[in-house]
Amino acid sequence: LSFKVSFPTLTVVLPLLSPNEDLLLAAAYVSDAQFNRNVPFETSPQAVRLYHFYNHWTMWAATYFFIWGDLALALFEEPALFPLPFLATSIAEVLCLTAFSGRLVHFAKVTPQMVFWKDTKNICIVVTIVLTLIDLITYGSLEAVNIHGVRWSRLIARKRNEMLSSQIRRAFRSNRNTLPDILYVFLLFIFSMLIFSLMALKLFGDRGLRTVEGSPYFTNILDIAFELYVLVTTANSPDVMMPAYEFNWWYSLYFITYVITNTYIFMSVFLAVVYNNYRKHLKNEIRTLAYLKRHKMIEAFNILKVKVGTEFVVKEAQWRQLAKIVAPDISSSHLELLLRISDEGQKGDVDKMNFLRLADLNIQVVTINIKRHPLEAWMPRVYQSSPSLLVQKTVRHRIFVWVYDVIILINAIFIALDEKNPLISYAEWLFLSLYIIEILLKLYTYEPRAYFGRKQFWNCVVSVLLTSSLCLVSETLFYPRFRVIVTTLINIGPTMLTFGGLVLVVYYMFAIVGMEVFHGKVHFFDPSSTGPDALVCGNPALKDSAFARGRYCRNNFNDLAASLILLTELTVVNQCFPLLADGFALVTHQASKLYFIGFHVVVVILIVNIFIAFILEAFFVAYSLEKSEVETAIEKKIQELGVGVQEEEVQDGKLIDNVDAKDSGFSGDDGDNKRRALKGLYFRIASKKYKTVDALPQQMFESEIAPEDEGPSLEEILNFSPSDIPPKSPSFENSA
Length: 736
Hints:
By secondary structure, this protein is mainly α. 64% of the residues lie in helices and 5% in strands. Helix 7 packs antiparallel against helix 24. It is globular, with a radius of gyration of 32 Å.
């Protein structure tokens, strides 16, 4: 069902147009449902083939390669960390623009023309590409006559790359959806801060107070507002209060009231509003994705359906072909299992309700090959003898794990003691021997290929570190009690990377602005330099400033790397925030403080709070994972067919022959009997892991949609709003 298209450095497998044109079209719909895509593509045979190619992983990999390559050009363009000739960077940028244009033309070929030009995303990409070319030509012309220009297109490049990346675009949409409600709270916060600023001006402006540096204290309304804004971050506390506090201790009540009102109340309200809006828009997006998925699957079913008796079904042969196109890497045993689940009556066809499950082929079903331990085959009498069975039973018992828990704790205490003591030194060898004995006993009890299988990550790590005499560290770090947290962090990793990409894009934008405004204003000199310029960071305006005295010269905007590091320091919001802002205000203008305030508002107040809301939801979902109805139906069917392994609570990392620790279902004597009885291939749902935080609520929402419910129309689905009420279900409401 495929053919190869070869390029000098790329070989891509494209779907081949089979005699049944409808099969590829149905596969496109199912693939869109599987990966939550909503692209109104053309349904002609050529457009469908191009659409399959558009969604091929190599195309996405190439797109992201050029996106990051385009962003990385800031490292090589002036002001550059690694300077390259303008000709070299301009050629690289033209190549990136060509790739983006090709990607856009490819997309235009698979979508209706009217739909393409109504999409704001496409218009933004076209406009930014044209503006970037204009800026590139203008800047190059000015450089040719030795006139310094400004590469303003770097900012719109960020917007273009955001539009090209669907994941970053989705993260940006989460931020944008939160803005309207948080704006009202922010305006109230600004109003409160200005009221306190006016109060400070009246309280302290005419008292002749001075700061430690000798400058007038709270005599300018703008300076007061900036200092009070910084006080919200606690970066200048208690320094900003000290002149007034030294004059009269009653004035401390003013600052205490301000901190309680703005730092604790308003910042907490910010988080509450962001979290509430994140959950609200998450529910709306989940609902939209669920109904779009149902809509796509119904479209696919309607294409392939044939009437058998009184109902419409999809024939088994077409179902097989469709499944192989949608999931080409699926194993034959897995495919047969899913077919037997879908074809409940073994009639040779799949009805509508079961066909809708085809989009969930990405639910991982583990194929378990039950095998005997090699020693059982080589020495059956010895391995099945009473002493041997006693050893195996002991190793499988939870007390065995508890004993080694105590050993680990004792080992930790010994490590904290003096290593020069011979007794302590020899004790380490004793502990090392005990850990080796533990591994040998487990290898004797559990089938070796199961113990070191590809799903037994922890066993492999422990064994490798043990051979490096670091077993305590491995056992302590990867002890089963901590696996829930570690596994949760791994599961939310992809979405965390998406948010990380969004933060990096925002950093990039502020870094570009910072380089254009502050480039060359501050210079770094070797620490051993004692020249007058070194004492003022190369700028006389910094003479006797806290910036120069603190040796902050390295914190500058002279290249992209330095700019990103400085912005990272600002994100931490410690005492360097006002110091850096004051320093760059001295070398430019006091209005430049707005740059630093804007960065704090966008990154710390908005994005960081959204990230916190995401983490809260992620851990809530991770700690309350329950299999969706789709998985439950599949697992029940596996058991009904007699080819399933029941999932039970597996504690303390127990293993079964050739079965993952988290996927095993045998223990004790009963497990010994089952191992003898079971042979061949068995299946079960792999684990309760989801690629994204909203995947579980989405599947739970899908389970609430009746099989016969075709849902709203496509136009209604795309116009869903958070104010609409989703189906009433405690499970969905609690998880999303």
